[in-house]
Specification:
By secondary structure, the protein is an alpha+beta fold. The protein has 1 helix and 2 strands. It is elongated, with a radius of gyration of 14 Å. The relative contact order is 0.21.
């Protein structure tokens, strides 16, 4: 594997991520309602770090 190849080059699940927030207010996680790392004004699906990790495990590429 080349040094310039990343996981994003292989696995396209969840590649669009909202920008990180500089500070509060934070958006609520759509699954557990805990604060996320993303700004409250972001329109879209936001997950807290725990739910984001679980989603990544669930949808990871197995090839």
């Amino acid at each position: 594997m080349s040094d310039d190849v990343t996981d994003r080059d292989y696995c396209l699940v969840g590649t669009d991520r909202p920008p990180k927030a500089d500070g509060p207010p934070y958006a609520a996680c759509v699954q557990c309602q805990e604060p996320t790392e993303y700004p409250e004004a972001y329109k879209g699906i936001t997950l807290c770090p725990v739910c984001e990790w679980r989603e990544a495990e669930r949808t990871s590429c197995s090839g």
